[in-house]
Amino acid sequence: MLKGIRGMFLDFVDDPFYEDEKKCVRFLADGLLVIENGTIKELGLYENIFSKYRNCQVDHYPGYLILPGFIDAHVHYSQMKIIASYGKKLLDWLGSYVFPEENKFKDYEYARAAASLFLDELLRNGTTTAAVFTTVHPQSVDAFFEESNKRDMRMIAGKVMMDRQAPHYLLDTTEQSYEESKRLIRKWHGNGRQLYAVTPRFAITSTRQQLNMAGRLKEEFPGVYIHTHLAENVDEIRLTLDLFPDCADYVKVYEESGLVTDKSIFAHGIHLSDSEMKRLSKAGSAVAFCPTSNLFLGSGLFNLAKAKSRANPVHVGVGTDVGAGTTLSLLRTLDEAYKVLGLQNQKLSAFKGFYLLTLGGARGLSLEGKIGNFDAGKEADVVVLDPRTTSLQQHRNSHHPQPLSNIRDVSEQLFALMCLGDERVVVKTYVAGSVLYSRN
Ligand code: GUN
Ligand code: ZN
User: Fold this and answer.
1) pLDDT at 375
2) Do residues 244 and 118 both lie within one domain?
3) CATH code at position 156
4) Given 16, 108, 133, 342, which residue has the most CB atoms within 10 angstroms?
5) What is the pLDDT of residue 399?
6) Phi, psi at residue 312, to the nearest 5°?
7) Ion ligand 2: residue ranges with CB closer than 5 A
8) Residue 378 belongs to a domain with what CATH number?
9) pLDDT, block means (10 residues), the chain with 440 residues
10) Are residues 74 and 57 both part of a single domain?
11) Are both 274 and 387 inside the same structural domain?
12) Which domain holds residue 31?
């Protein structure tokens, strides 16, 4: 069955960090997106293609901007309840708030309710894909994937591994972690749109034996992801190097166990040497830039220009990192990214920002063939945004003619969206062609 969406479309066909921005953007002032069985059949100018699809039912959104669903490159579904918890820096905050809350996920029903709320919140924010931390409990993974599968959302998640430096009630063992992860990989990796990530929390909470086991799982199941934290906080780095005295730097700790791969997602990567960045680049790994979290915990300023250098390019996505992050809105997160970069004399244009939320995020998560833009054959995850939601936004954007006709106006309106937008601007969220969220 065919379905259509009509309105102003914007997506990316290339990386504006390396190519002329205007050549990377695809903008259709009056476009028609045709969807067949959850997959994109065609995107074209309405007047050029509508006659081919005369009996297709069309949702029309005049005045709104239509983008590919947003991609959150790093977030913890288990930490929603402790978002905005007053504390010290990372390690203290983990002990005071995160670990006690994650203990509750031993209860499948608690985990399932949290997963359901979390996924609905993502949809309310226009986020259709995320790389998600669960907890050490396998039932927290089953609960998450059950809910995600029910919504047919493309999600990456996996069981957290921790066998030391955490409260006893959250520890697993190498053997147990291996067996449970293997069962979960077999059950969920490639089940519908679900994808599995082998998820050692970070180097501090895993022994070498456990990290090696994680590497072994990646060898046995080459299609799975590796998802962990890296170089977020200076005390974390000091303790890591104390615990792994044979390693010259943090990346080396993961390299030694075969965890630095082209399907590895490293959250943060704030304090990385040139050599470490270069090795991530060579491996084809991705870093999740999580500005609200990095500011909230006082972790530091991520150097995006270094990660996106031409010489040693590293894939970058944007993560909300809730509960250290203070919002699930990737629009609010872009606003903070802009400021974090401004403090380092770097600029984040609107096109670069929205690229990171869509095609850039998809590339970082090795999902470019499936999501990230409106190319034919991709899965139809779509977000519809209203740039004039609040009275301030109406005032800010009142001088733009509708529909937008030139790329400068588009860029300006997008920039205002990234600075002023939040979940209120999200009008509809489509997942695989179906409306899963609708603003009242
Ligand atoms: N490093 C290890 N675990 C965590 C976590 O839960 N949140 C953040 N921000 N960093 C971490
Ligand atoms: Zn995190």
Assistant:
1) 98
2) yes
3) 3.20.20.140
4) 133
5) 79
6) -135, 70
7) 267, 321
8) 2.30.40.10
9) 96 98 96 98 98 96 97 98 94 96 98 98 98 98 98 98 98 98 98 98 98 98 98 98 98 99 98 98 98 98 98 98 98 98 98 98 98 98 97 89 84 96 98 97
10) no
11) no
12) 2-68+373-438
Q: Calculate helix-pair angle for 350-357, 330-342, nearest 10 degrees.
A: 130
357 lines ligand 1 (CB under 6 A): no
Identify the DSSP state of 379: B
Please check whether residues 153 and 174 belong to one and the same domain.
yes
Q: Is residue 204 classed exposed, middle or buried when 0-12, 13-18 and 19+ CB atoms within 10 A define those classes?
A: buried
Report the alpha-carbon distance of residue 248 to residue 45 in Å, rounded.
Answer: 55
Residue 283: how many other CB atoms lie within 10 Å: 18
What pLDDT, on a 0 to 100 scale, did the predictor assign at position 397? Answer: 87
Ligand 2 centroid, distance to 289 Cα (angstroms): 10
β-sheet bridge partners, residue 433: none
Residues 139 and 174 in one domain: yes
User: Of 265, 295, 328, which residue is a domain's last?
Assistant: 328
| Count: domains in the chain | 2
Check pocket membership of 202 for ligand 1, CB cut-off 6 A.
yes
In this structure, are 205 and 322 located in the same domain?
A: yes
Cβ atoms within 10 A of the Cβ of 57, count? 9
The Cα 307–Cα 316 span in angstroms is 7
> Residue 424: its pLDDT value, please?
98
Residue holding tokens 């996106």?
308
Q: Is the pTM of this model over 0.85?
A: yes
CB distance 268 to ligand 1 below 6 Å: no
DSSP-assigned states of every residue in 312-343: S--EEEE---TTTSS-S-HHHHHHHHHHHHHT
Question: How far apart are alpha carbons 67 and 4 in whole angstroms?
Answer: 14
Residues 6 or more apart whose CB falls under 8 angstroms from that of 388 comprise: 63, 394, 397, 398
Specify the pLDDT at position 401: 72
